[in-house]
């Protein structure tokens, strides 16, 4: 089966999907969203313009990188992308939502708040996604459309003047931590890439390793991290620097290198957001008791945000959106957690307690969420 990937090298989430396909050895052809097939068939079937999207051999179209990986894992379960240990799986699954919570804002900031340094590159990167052989004037036109759209997200992500130094400190701390990790460990969980490594590529490659301003910081401060982003864009599991490293996840449920510290940093930056979002959702969904299963509650919402709240990170107040999408992604972790034995759950709670994030797995949603036709939807109502 050949997969057709519609995305862009400037795209945050396309970076995750692309390296997943490469490292899994799944045959694929990449196309830009300006391709006629995307407009005429793929987008017409998902009813969504966002990238990445994939088309399968039978014409099935899937939007959203989490949904894409979930679907493809059914066809290509090997090699595994989740490590085997309980603590390892917990960390890998939490990274699926928390890495974006840590690095999503710095990625946006370093791209769109450094327009003079970045735009000559970024604007035309986006423009070529829609008109690959276009003139500079034509690709600049499309680049400005994307830039205007991204500017509209400023308030939603809490990008106040007071918050920008925080975003930069989180980026630098992540680089320093990973630079040390990649001295002797090729991936987050040992010698094989996991779903968490793919998630890490979204901000690190899609924005931070390619846009001129943050790429300069990465190359000068953390050259091993930059080299890792290059290696993640090849089909080889072993990079030349780790030619003798076993291509296996770490044994004995170990979180090798600085992986535990990365999880701690993620929880510091975004761990409070998930329980707060769940509280807002539980109150919001009370008025949806008559809505049937499958109701696409996010269809007419920008970013599927149902409320706002504030958190404090390193003494800085941040505005946050209560995102149904983030809650849906995290619900997959909650479903996994609740299916574990009592002993395994206690082990997970102990680990998270040490990191200040125990509340993350104690969330009990008043009504489960699902996804239908590329939109977040209500799951079955719980019995009363």
Description:
With 384 residues, this protein is an alpha+beta fold. Helices cover 52% and strands 10% of the residues. It is built from 14 helices and 8 strands. It has helices at residues 12-24, 36-46, 65-75, 86-112, 115-130, 136-151, 164-181, 195-208, 212-221, 223-231, 259-270, 273-284, 324-338, 342-355, and strands at residues 3-6, 28-31, 53-55, 61-63, 305-313, 316-323, 369-372, 375-378. The protein has a 4-stranded mixed β-sheet, with helices on both faces. The protein has a two-stranded antiparallel sheet with strand order 5-6. Helix 1 links the parallel strand 1 and strand 2. Helix 4 (86-112) crosses helix 11 and helix 5 crosses helix 6. The radius of gyration is 20 Å and the shape is globular. 45% of the residues are buried.
The run of helices and strands is EHEHEEHHHHHHHHHHEEHHEE
- SSE class: alpha+beta
Largest sheet: 4 strands, mixed
Which shape, going by the Cα principal axes?
globular
**Arithmetic mean of pLDDT:** 91
Give helix % range.
40-55%
The tally of beta strands, per DSSP, is: 8
Which runs of at least 5 residues are low in confidence (pLDDT < 50)? none
The neighbouring-strand order within the major sheet is: 2-1-3-4
Task: Measure the end-to-end span.
Answer: 45 Å
Tally of individual helices: 14
C-alpha Rg, in Å?
20 Å
């Amino acid at each position: 089966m050949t997969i057709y990937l519609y995305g862009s090298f400037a795209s945050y989430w396309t970076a995750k999907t692309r390296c997943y396909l490469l490292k899994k050895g799944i045959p694929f052809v990449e196309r830009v969203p300006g391709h006629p097939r995307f407009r005429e068939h793929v987008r017409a079937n998902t009813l969504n313009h966002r990238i990445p999207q994939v088309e399968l051999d039978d014409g099935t179209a899937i939007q959203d990188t989490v949904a894409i990986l979930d679907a493809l894992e059914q066809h290509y379960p090997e090699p595994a992308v989740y490590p085997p240990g309980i603590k390892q799986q917990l960390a890998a699954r939490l990274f699926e939502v928390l890495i974006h919570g840590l690095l999503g804002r710095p990625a946006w900031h370093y791209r769109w708040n450094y327009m003079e340094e970045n735009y000559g590159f970024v604007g035309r990167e986006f423009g070529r996604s829609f008109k690959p052989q276009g003139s500079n004037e034509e690709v600049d036109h499309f680049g400005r459309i994307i830039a205007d759209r991204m500017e509209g997200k400023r308030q939603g992500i809490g990008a106040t003047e007071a918050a920008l130094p925080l975003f930069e400190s989180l980026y630098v701390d992540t680089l320093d931590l990973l630079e040390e990790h990649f001295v002797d460990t090729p991936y987050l969980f040992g010698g094989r890439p996991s779903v968490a490594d793919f998630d890490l590529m979204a901000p690190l490659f899609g924005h931070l390793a390619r846009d001129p301003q943050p790429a300069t910081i990465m190359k000068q401060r953390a050259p091993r991290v930059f080299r890792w982003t290059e290696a993640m864009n090849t089909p080889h599991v072993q990079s030349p620097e780790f030619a003798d490293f076993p291509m296996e996840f770490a044994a004995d449920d170990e979180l090798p290198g600085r992986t535990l510290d990365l999880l701690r940093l993620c929880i510091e930056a975004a761990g409070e957001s998930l329980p707060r979002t769940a509280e807002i959702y539980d109150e919001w969904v009370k008025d949806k008791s008559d809505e049937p299963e499958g109701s696409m509650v996010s269809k007419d919402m920008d970013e599927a945000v149902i409320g706002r709240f504030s958190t404090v990170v390193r003494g800085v107040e941040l505005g946050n959106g209560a995102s149904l999408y983030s809650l849906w992604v995290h619900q997959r972790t909650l479903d996994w957690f609740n299916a574990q034995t009592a002993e395994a759950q206690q082990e997970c709670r102990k680990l998270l307690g040490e990191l200040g994030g125990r509340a993350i797995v104690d969330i009990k949603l008043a009504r489960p969420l699902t996804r239908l036709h590329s939109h977040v939807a209500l799951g079955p109502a719980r019995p009363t």
